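Same chain as my last thread, 341 residues:
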Amino acid sequence: MAGKTLYDKLWEDHVVHTEDDGSCLIYIDRQLLHEVTSPQAFDGLRLSKRLPWRTQRNLAVADHNVPTTERDKGIIDAVSRLQVETLDNNCKEFGITEFDMGDIRQGIVHVIGPEQGATLPGMTVVCGDSHTSTHGASAALAFGIGTSEVEHALATQCLIQKKAKNFLIRVNGKTLPGVTAKDLILAIIGKIGTAGGTGYTIEFGGEAITALSMEARMTICNMAIEAGARAGLIAVDDTTIEYYRDRPYSPKGHDWHAAVTHWRKLYSDHDAVFDKIFEFNAADVKPQVTWGTSPEMVSPVDDTVPDPQQETDAVKREGMLRALKYMGLQPGQKNHRHQGR
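reply #2:
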C-alpha cells in the first residue's frame, strides 16, 4: 500500500462524513474573519436564529479598510468605516475575539494567525479571502471560502468540500544571491501558468524550499492560489517548530510536547503517490520581472519583454497584446535599464 501525501493526511484527519458522490463534510479548526466578507454571514445567523457553534475557534481582525497611519483620526471613508464598525459590533454580539483597529495585535488577516499561533500545523483553516492558502506554510490545510460558507463555518464549524488532486512542486538546489521567495513562486507560475494548479493542492518541497524562513514560505503558499491551486502546503520541519514556540496561542507545557510529536508526522511519505510532479533547479531562477497583468507574465530581470507574435496560441497572443498595451511596454524591450550618474 502506497504512502500518503501531506494533503492526504490532513484531509483524512478532518473528514466527518463522506457522501456517495465523493463530497465530504470536513471539520474546520480555525476560521479567520474580516470586515469585508463577514457581514452577510452574521446576518444569516440572525435570520436563522443560530449562534456560532464554537466561538473560540473563530478569530476576527479588521484589515482591508483600516488606515495605515494616523488611526487616532478614525476612518474617513464612510463605507470603510461602516464595514469596520459592523465587524466590531458583530464580534461583540456573538462573542468572537477580535483584534480591532486599536489592538497592537491587529494586522493582515493572513499574518496575525501564524504570528499569534492561532493557526498551527495540522489545522484546517478557512477565511473569506482567496489568499488564505498562506497558512499552508505551516502544513495547515488552508483555503479561501465564500460568504455563504463563512456563515456555514460559523454555525457548524464544518464545510462540504471535495478532495483535490495532489501536485508536488520540487525546487532542487540552492537559490542564487538576490533571489527571493517571490522570485521562486513567480518563476514557478511563469512555467506552469495561472491554471497549472487548477484542481490540485500543491505541496512545495526540495532543498530551496526547506532553506526558506517561515515568512518566505508564507510568500510561496500565498501565491499558490495565483497558480490556480486550491491550497499550498509545506511540510513541517525544525524551522516550523521553532517558529511556533512560545507564540501566544501556541500550546504550552505538556500540550506543546504532544503537539510537536504530532507535527513531526506532517510530511509526505517517501512512497506517496502524486497525481502531478514538477521539478526544476533553484539555480536557474533569477530575480523576476512582471511585464504584464497576470502572475504568469514574468521573465528574468536580464531578459527582454516577449514578442506576442512568437506565441502560437491565439488566445494567449491576444492576452499578451492587451497586457503590453496596458503596461506601455514594447516587445524586445529590456527588462532593466542602466542609468549613469
